[in-house]
Amino acid sequence: ASSPHTDSPPATATLDDQDPVGPDNLFVNYLSRIHREEDFHFILKGVARLLTNPLIQTYLPNSTKKIQFHQELLVLFWKLCDFNKKFLFFVLKSSDVLDVLVPILYYLNDARADQSRVGLMHIGVFILLLLSGERNFGVRLNKPYSVRVPMDIPVFTGTHADLLIVVFHKIITSGHQRLQPLFDCLLTIVVNVSPYLKSLSMVAANKLLHLLEAFSTPWFLFSASQNHHLVFFLLEVFNNIIQYQFDGNCNLVYAIIRKRNVFHQLANLPSDPSSIQKALQRKKKSPEAISRTSSQEGLSMEGSRPAAPAEPGTLKTSLIATPGIDKLTEKSQVSEDGTMISLQKTDSPQTPSDNSGIAGVSDTESNSGRDNEDVFYTETERRRLSNVSSAAQWIPTPDWVLSWKTKLPLQTIMRLLQVLVPQVEKICIDKGLTDESEILKFLQHGTLVGLLPVPHPILIRKYQANAGTAMWFRTYMWGVIYLRNVDPPIWYDTDVKLFEIQRV
Questions:
Q1: What percentage of the chain exceeds 70 in pLDDT?
Q2: Would you say 39 and 4 are in contact if contact means Cβ atoms under 8 Å apart?
Q3: Which of the ends of the chain has fewer CB neighbours closer than 10 A, N or C?
Q4: Cis ω on the peptide bond leading into residue 488 (within 30° of 0)?
Q5: Of the candidates 156, 170, 66, which has an alpha carbon nearest to the alpha carbon of residue 113?
Q6: What was the pLDDT predicted at 393?
Q7: pTM here?
Q8: 430 CB neighbour count, 10 Å cutoff
Q9: Which of 138, 92, 129, 161 has the alpha carbon at shortest distance from 330?
């Protein structure tokens, strides 16, 4: 294989036209100029092959040398996409992007319980956020998922989109609490790809409904000022799929019909002071109170092992907090011909300016109360978290609840329920149906043409670089370099000020 080839840019292009780069960084300069298809192919294939290396299953133990530098690879892949937009578009042009997606999802799932790998979780999610801003990524996710990488997630038959949703659900419901600032990012990725998802499996549909059920409990909604954003994101996912991909998504429609009470409760969410107080003081049910959805939940993939926390004493470096999702992304509207129009920033219910309140706090301290959902946490953790949140002096008011409750985008879903619930109930009574496959068959051939509200424009939240993320990446990258070189102690007697070294 030949090494990547670079050409000088044409004389008309000036450095001012390109993204600003460091003063004399020739490496970055040449990286940004690579443009030949065969070079892009060479780079992408190499990155994908190396990322996939630790996932390879062999019959002979130790017959494949396992690499350990996947964090460095992800940093390199991020830099390539960031400095060379032609490379980013090449990655998204074919299904090869899935060869990068699957190992990233594997690493995210594997690291979700390990506090020493918070940085790895962040960079994996940032890469997916960057990719999800392009339509091609959503379209590629419809490819069936047949490679069986051993992950401790439920067995399912479906597409790469199903894999993404199932892994994200696992991270949110069983990751450690320091991942809570990533919830907005994870759901933004799902929102970005949702208009293009042709057919979700029943497992993935149930996972999305389970998240809505968890995030829409009054106690959770009232316990922190940003928690309702998660509900807005999930409703946007459902609306996108119903309006733009209704035909192939009978599983999701059926799951929405089965869980219709969740939507009715949201629409009738009480906002008077006594109800708010009652919700906040309500004795929590046991964490198992909300079912783990599908009957397949107990079965994990063959050969998988559960995500393990870090060994006590593991070294990690501190990270600065990441900017809120409104700072991380800019909104673009997809026009009818598929082009994107950037929208001017305005405060909206999903991205109010209060979202950036955690900026400047170390990742080990940021706690906006997002992680205290009773479905996911034990009684002692909940008690500790409620103490933390009371210290933060956040007091929900009826005006605050009404300010976002009136903007909940429930019209499309309520109309769907209004039309389909009576029809499904009638079929069940007339035919004495108890088998869901018959109902799914009916929904598959049903139509809502002319019955739903006018389709809303598709909104995509594209990643945008800013000073906050640049600083985060610098800290993370040097942290990886530092920990890679602890033995021999080359940093001994140096005075590092960029981050702190901590033991788990």
A1: 79
A2: yes
A3: N
A4: yes
A5: 170
A6: 67
A7: 0.82
A8: 8
A9: 129
